[in-house]
Amino acid sequence: MKDKLTLMIPGPTPVPETVLRAMGRHPIGHRSGAFQASVARTTAQLKWLHQTSNDVLVITGSGTAAMEAGIINTLSRGDRVLCGDNGKFGERWVNLCQAYGLAVETIKAAWGQPLDPSAFQAVLEADTEKRIRAVILTHSETSTGVINDLEAIAGHVRAHGRALTLVDCVTSLGATTVPVDAWGLDVVASGSQKGYMIPPGLSFVSMSARAWEAHGRSDLPKFYLDLGPYRKSAARNSNPFTPAVNLYFALETALEMMQAEGLEAIFARHARHRAAAQAGMKALGVNLFSAEGCGSPAITAVDPGCDAEALRQLVKNKYDILLAGGQDHLKGRIFRIGHLGFVCDRDVLTAVAAIEGALLEMGVACVEAGAGVAAAARALNA
Ligand SMILES: *Cc1c(COP(=O)(O)O)cnc(C)c1O
């Protein structure tokens, strides 16, 4: 049905009506007092979301721009870095580091499994000469629906004493707690089309005092993404270049909504939706792709044991819900339910119902009509 398609993919995520209305106006001058006031307010809101007193800078670009900014602003040619890789976005970090000629060592886990914090601990403890400059990983691995134990890994990095922690929190920020100061996260990258509930186009990067020290030494080439000028102009509530002005209107409005809901309530909602999606799938007799106990609060990856692309098409064409497919070797094998950002109980319940209907239509043997919805409803009420 026209205009009815509901996004349940891990970005872009649904945008509240209030936010769309905030964007739907003429842009204002980006050097005007009115815009600077907006920058001042969003800066404070972003620090609240990141639970930090560090700088949180706004870049016009997608989430990967913030990731790239993190690398090129804190590292130097030939630096040794340790990358966690257990999915498509872990791989992106590795590719990005290699593009800048860093000496990358990886700690891998199979897709669907979480990274093992003790593997990081072992490599970091063995580095007695303190040559590892950064530990780089993805908090919520969107491609597999796995959340990594960032708190434990960051703890091992702090014990090392020299390396920085650089994290992709693109699908964890706004879905689960990312206490940047408490966990000592030096660089945190995120993007607007995920937990922020606004359209794609802005990315965010937080920089600790240690990250800024490293910026002073960093010799990797940079211009548009050199965070030095961003920091300087942020002190005057401004930007070095023309920012996506209307997306700032959206950002301020969305963050106001998030502040009204409260961090704890937002995280609890995402945890409940993860529980409902997982319970619904299990009751339908299909397998979760992520290992037990490490499902992401933003996304549930499902291995239905049948043609996942056919199922996804059926859910889209018949029920007007867009699920995400599998990436790379998982294409056709898994589908992913995004429950990140502006998502309510109804969305999750309907998604489970639609998947149930599609599985029944496809004649997948194990499915008992109503079982998925019943289990999801119970999880939502728990
Ligand atoms: C969406 C996403 C990104 C950013 O991708 P862009 O397309 O550059 O916005 C990075 N990491 C993860 C884990 C993501 O889910």
Would you give an account of this structure?
- The protein has 382 residues and is an alpha/beta fold.
- It has 2 domains: 15-258, 3-Layer(aba) Sandwich (Aspartate Aminotransferase, domain 2); 261-379, Aspartate Aminotransferase, domain 1 (Alpha-Beta Complex).
- The chain is 43% helix and 17% strand.
- The protein has 13 helices and 14 strands.
- A 7-stranded mixed beta sheet has the order 2-10-9-8-5-3-4, with helices on both faces. Strands 1-13-14-12-11 form a 5-stranded mixed beta sheet.
- A hairpin with a 4-residue loop joins strand 6 and strand 7.
- Helix 5 runs parallel beside helix 6 and helix 10 (263-283) packs antiparallel against helix 13.
- The protein is globular.
- It starts with 5 loop residues before the first strand and ends with a helix.
- The model has no long low-confidence stretch (mean pLDDT 97).
- Bound molecules: pyridoxal-5'-phosphate.
- Pyridoxal-5'-phosphate (PLP) is lined by residues 10-11, 62-64, 89, 138, 142, 168, 170-171, 191.
- Pyridoxal-5'-phosphate (PLP) binds at residues 10-11, 62-64, 89, 138, 142, 168, 170-171, 191.
